[in-house]
Specification:
By secondary structure, this protein is an alpha/beta fold. About 35% of the residues lie in helices and about 20% in strands. The chain is built from ten helices and ten strands. The strands form two sheets. It has a five-stranded mixed beta sheet with strand order 3-2-1-4-5, sandwiched between helices. The protein has a five-stranded mixed beta sheet with strand order 8-7-6-9-10, sandwiched between helices. Helix 9 links the parallel strand 9 and strand 10. Helix 4 crosses helix 10, helix 5 crosses helix 6 and helix 6 packs across helix 8. The radius of gyration is 21 Å and the shape is globular. About 50% of the residues are buried.
């Protein structure tokens, strides 16, 4: 377990509200332990619309934010006055959702007379494997696969990040979810596609591996989604619209189609192959022997198995956050808040960053 003694932080309250999960957690920075946490998912709220509705997301954070903080404090048996700082997700994310968390953090911190710590959402994911046991030591390669992000980073320390590769269009998580929708799975379909894939044959369909041999460390998944759409048209007997004609609606594969599981397995294998190949290439290019996987797609069992095998062949070790911390959560925000405790300020202004490049971050100033 990582030594957090140099952060000089005690209890840090973390508030995550960047998208469709309201996450609250208490993290003890002196001993590196999650004291208590609560999480509310908005999946059922957004499912009828097939995706996240920003206005509804913001309203739901308002509804659940305070009650989750209250339940988290009660389960830990502490009061707000015992907290040393309030960390919150400043960005990136949905503007309205971020504003709810930022205003909540500012109001509570002001009421308790405590400082606030703005946190980059992706830094939360990036450093979440440090909450596992064993935890990785710096430096390492990070494969970030969360929501609209698919990136390879070189991590030399907290705030010392170098971008090695990025997606030029769709991210891996988007490829999973969009493909799942095409084969008739409900929102959010990425995890459901993986479960369905367990019953299929991954070599049944020739799903492309975009940029697999490009020579760089970038990703591309938009073409993969188009290939899946074409396979669905073929399987349903639906012709492509004539050139120049108004596009016809994209067909969806019926639930009872006999090739559904095979297509799911082929899709998953193609996405995983791209992620694994680029990750191994990053290890070879940098000469590092540690890689961490963070973000929602990091919970995918096929990815974990394939990357573990590939890393072992090149003498590298793979680290993952606990499965429960792969999706958005308050613990990763409180954790980064503890690591950046030296940046805590009695600043109660509300300023969110819906777009925020991870490369803009800097290493925290060491505590005196």
């Amino acid at each position: 377990m990582k030594d957090f003694s140099t952060t000089r932080s005690g209890l840090v309250l973390g508030i995550e509200s960047s998208c469709d999960e309201t996450g609250i957690a208490l993290f003890n920075g002196r001993i590196g332990v999650i004291v208590a946490e609560s999480l509310h998912s908005q999946i059922l709220l957004h499912a009828p619309f097939g995706g996240v509705v920003p206005e509804l997301a913001g309203r739901d954070h308002i509804k659940y934010g305070l009650r989750l903080i209250d339940s988290t404090l009660k389960s830990a048996g502490i009061s707000g006055n015992e907290i040393e700082a309030v960390a919150y997700t400043q960005g990136p994310g949905l503007a309205g959702a971020l504003l709810v968390g930022a205003q909540l953090a500012a109001a509570l911190a002001y009421a308790w007379g405590k400082p606030t710590i703005p946190v980059h959402h992706m830094e939360g994911h990036l450093l979440s494997p440090m909450l596992a046991d064993p935890a990785p030591a710096f430096p390492f390669i990070a494969l970030l696969v969360s929501g609209g992000h698919t990136q390879l980073m070189r991590v030399d320390g907290v705030g010392r990040y170098g971008l090695l590769g990025d997606t030029i269009d769709d991210a891996a998580g988007e490829a999973f979810d969009k493909s799942a929708k095409l084969i008739g799975l409900p929102y959010p379909g990425g995890a459901l596609l993986s479960r369905l894939a367990a019953n299929g044959e991954e070599t049944s369909f020739a799903i492309p591996r975009p940029l697999l041999h490009s020579g760089d460390l970038n990703f591309s998944f938009a073409g993969l989604k188009t290939a899946v759409a074409n396979e669905v048209r073929h399987l349903t007997g639906t012709a492509l619209p004539a050139r120049g004609a108004i596009s016809a609606p994209q067909p969806i594969l019926p639930d009872d189609h006999p090739r559904r599981a095979d297509l799911a397995a082929s899709i998953q294998a193609a996405i995983v192959d791209c992620l694994v190949a680029k990750s191994v290439a990053a290890l070879k290019r940098t000469g590092l022997q540690r890689i961490v996987v963070a973000g929602g797609v990091g919970a995918n069992q096929k990815l974990r198995e394939s990357l573990n095998r590939a890393a072992e062949k090149v003498g590298a070790t793979v680290f993952y956050p606990p499965v429960a911390l792969c999706t958005d959560n308050g613990a990763m925000i409180a954790h980064v808040g503890a690591l950046r405790f030296a940046e805590a300020k009695l600043d109660y202004s509300v300023n969110v960053k819906p777009r925020w490049d991870l490369a803009e971050l800097r290493a925290p100033t060491p505590c005196a």
